[in-house]
Amino acid sequence: PTDELLRRSDGFWPAEAKPSDDPYRLAVLKLVQDRLKYLSELPELTDFFFTDPQPVKHELTKNMEGAVAANALLDVIKAAGDADWTESSLEEAVRPLAEHLDLKTGVLFGLIRTAITGRTAAPGLFETMAVLGRETTLRRLEHATKLVRA
Questions:
Q1: Listed residue (34, 39, 72, 46) closest to 132, CA to CA
Q2: How far apart are CA 74 and CA 148, in angstroms?
Q3: Which residue of 59, 84, 117, 128 could cross-link 89, Cys pair, CB 3.0 to 4.6 Å?
Q4: Within 10 Å of residue 54's Cβ, how many Cβ atoms?
Q5: What are 22-78's pLDDT values in tens digits?
């Protein structure tokens, strides 16, 4: 059970994860539990939940030009910023942007995932956004927008 896993995981979290953040750590565990084979993998799987990643420009723009990526990220910021901050409302707000921007869903979601996690593979996109929270997610999207514009 996730509660038991949380109890056993003390000492395995990234240094930035504080024990006082148990509700947050529990939400993070629920997202990575299926991928977690050993507790020693916990820092690698969860570090981006606790510190802002430093996405690399070429990873953000590998499937599109920088201007397209920047415009897509701006649209995501607007759509997500206006949504209730739940998985379902985030998905409702962001998924239609792929068609509007004439991008494949996987390409748009990959851009967003890389912007907010610094990785090309991570837990479910909308679940991750919901756990990270509005402020953190939007800040990371804005940072990625500046990066691809540079």
A1: 46
A2: 11
A3: 84
A4: 8
A5: 899 999 999 999 999 999 999 999 999 999 999 999 999 998 999 999 999 999 999
